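Postdoc handover notes: sequence design on the structure in folder B. Input tokens:
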């Protein structure tokens, strides 16, 4: 009796892992560097299932054929085996099928919106153009002074409307680095994130958040930028929007805090990778 539940468990776990990988849902749970391991684990379990079935058949002691001679005890044992494997299968399968692929507003509020990049472990700038920037020393650290001068902002991609394409984490890093802060201040930028409506007595603005992940969804932290919008925003809570406006850096309690004066707010589809890394 124990052979079937074990065999089914291995196959179901294999199928779930391969489905998460092939459907792209894995991007909502893991850092990209771990995606290949999910596929490898799924394939390994798919290979292991028939091997285990074959190996367990060789050592089968024939207890099932003696069930008629042992009264109700084998049936009780069988029920226990089924229950044990149901505990392994049902929560994992149910969670995979019904769980959303993004965090809800309650989860964001419970984790707290970060506006100070120094509170984020292992954070690093997501400027794609830094890959092409000059490096210093043997550590490969970009020299932020290379972004100074007239051509500084030209290191970054611009949209069709001329706005600099950034992420929330980019402005948070710029707030801590004087050279970058000078480059982005009073510049027209465009950022995609999720809409968090005003809280409490806060009026005339809202938060734009994006989840930052070091390893997996368990350590995800919401990074937020305050958006100054004079009018009402007709966007669902946690809906994805593109904000285009002027970047500002306000000095509060001895530190600079980024803010975006919105010129245009557009509802957009969620990006393929909803996390920042």
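Designed sequence:
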């Amino acid at each position: 009796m124990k052979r079937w539940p074990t065999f089914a468990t291995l196959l179901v776990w294999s199928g779930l892992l391969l489905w998460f990988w092939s459907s792209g849902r894995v991007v909502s749970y893991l850092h990209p560097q771990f995606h290949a391991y999910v596929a490898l684990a799924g394939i390994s379990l798919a290979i292991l299932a028939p091997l285990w079935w074959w190996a367990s058949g060789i050592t089968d002691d024939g207890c099932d054929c003696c069930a008629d001679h042992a009264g109700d005890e084998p049936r009780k044992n069988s029920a226990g085996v089924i229950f044990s494997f149901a505990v392994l299968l049902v929560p994992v399968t149910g969670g995979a099928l019904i769980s959303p692929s993004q965090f809800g507003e309650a989860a964001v509020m419970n984790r707290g919106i970060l506006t100070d990049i120094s509170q984020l472990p292992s954070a690093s700038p997501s400027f794609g153009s830094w890959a092409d920037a000059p490096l210093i020393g043997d550590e490969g650290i970009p020299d932020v002074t290379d972004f100074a001068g007239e051509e500084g902002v030209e290191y970054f991609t611009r949209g069709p409307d001329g706005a600099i394409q950034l992420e929330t984490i980019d402005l948070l890093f710029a707030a801590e680095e004087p050279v970058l802060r000078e480059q982005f201040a009073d510049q027209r930028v465009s950022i995609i994130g999720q809409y968090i409506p005003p809280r409490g007595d806060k009026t005339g603005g809202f938060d734009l958040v994006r989840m930052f992940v070091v390893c997996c969804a368990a350590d995800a932290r919401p990074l937020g930028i305050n958006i100054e919008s004079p009018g009402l925003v007709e966007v669902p809570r946690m809906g994805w929007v593109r904000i285009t406006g002027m970047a500002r850096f306000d000095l509060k309690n001895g530190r600079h805090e980024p803010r975006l004066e919105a010129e245009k707010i557009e509802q957009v589809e969620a990006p393929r990778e909803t996390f920042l890394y």
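Context for whoever picks this up: The domain at 105-267 is CATH 2.40.50.140 (OB fold (Dihydrolipoamide Acetyltransferase, E2P)). Don't rerun without checking with the PI first.
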